[in-house]
C-alpha cells in the first residue's frame, strides 16, 4: 500500500531538515500547535510506510550526492578530536604556529579560519563540543526522551506503581 498524499508531503518535508514538527505543520496546515504537531509527527515517523519511504529517499540521496554517513562522521571526528597542539608548538614563553606542511592533512578540516590579529596569528578551530555532541547523538549516547517499556501483568497495576518503580521504589 502506498503513502497517502499527506504522508508523502510530510515525508518529503521531513527530508529537508529532519524536523518532524515543521513537516507535520506543512502537511497538515490546520494544525497550529507545536506540541500537537510534534506528537503527531513522531507518530508518523514510526509508521512503517513512512519510515520505509524516508529511508529509501535517504539512500537515493546518498547515492546521488556520494556523501555517506561515514564521510560526515569522519569530518566531525576531525573537528571533535583536534587538539591545539596539532597546530601550534609551545616553546618556552612563545607559541609558534606550525608550518602548513607540518600539519597532517586530516587535521586541516578542523580549522575554521586563520587571521592576523593584534597579538599575532590567530587560528580558530571549528566547534569541538558541537562536533562531539553530533557524534554522540549518532552513536545513540544521549537520550532526549525517556523510554519506558514493559508489560502490565495484572489489572491492579497502576500508573502510580510504575512511576514509583521508575523513581527507585519497591513497586
UniProtKB/TrEMBL annotation:
<dbReference type="InterPro" id="IPR038713">
    <property type="entry name" value="Terminase_Gp1_N_sf"/>
</dbReference>
<dbReference type="InterPro" id="IPR005335">
    <property type="entry name" value="Terminase_ssu"/>
</dbReference>
<protein>
    <submittedName>
        <fullName>Terminase small subunit</fullName>
    </submittedName>
</protein>
<dbReference type="Pfam" id="PF03592">
    <property type="entry name" value="Terminase_2"/>
</dbReference>
<keyword id="KW-0231">Viral genome packaging</keyword>
<dbReference type="InterPro" id="IPR052404">
    <property type="entry name" value="SPP1-like_terminase"/>
</dbReference>
<keyword id="KW-1188">Viral release from host cell</keyword>
Amino acid at each position: 500500500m502506498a503513502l497517502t498524499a499527506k504522508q508523502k508531503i510530510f515525508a518529503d518535508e521531513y527530508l529537508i531538515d529532519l524536523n518532524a514538527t515543521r513537516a507535520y505543520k506543512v502537511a497538515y496546515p490546520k494544525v497550529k500547535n507545536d506540541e500537537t504537531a510534534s506528537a503527531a509527527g513522531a507518530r508518523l515517523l514510526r509508521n512503517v510506510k513512512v519510515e520505509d519511504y524516508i529511508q529509501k529517499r535517504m539512500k537515493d540521496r546518498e547515492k546521488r550526492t556520494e556523501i555517506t554517513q561515514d564521510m560526515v562522521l569522519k569530518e566531525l571526528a576531525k573537528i571533535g578530536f583536534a587538539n591545539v597542539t596539532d597546530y601550534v608548538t609551545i616553546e618556552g614563553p612563545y607559541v609558534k604556529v606550525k608550518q602548513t606542511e607540518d600539519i597532517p592533512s586530516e587535521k586541516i578540516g578542523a580549522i575554521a579560519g586563520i587571521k592576523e590579529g593584534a597579538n599575532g596569528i590567530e587560528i580558530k578551530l571549528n566547534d569541538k563540543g558541537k562536533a562531539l555532541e553530533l557524534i554522540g547523538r549518532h552513536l545513540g549516547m544521549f537520550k532526549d526522551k525517556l523510554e519506558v517499556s514493559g508489560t502490565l501483568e495484572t489489572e491492579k497495576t497502576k500508573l502510580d506503581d510504575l512511576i514509583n518503580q521508575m523513581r527507585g521504589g519497591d513497586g
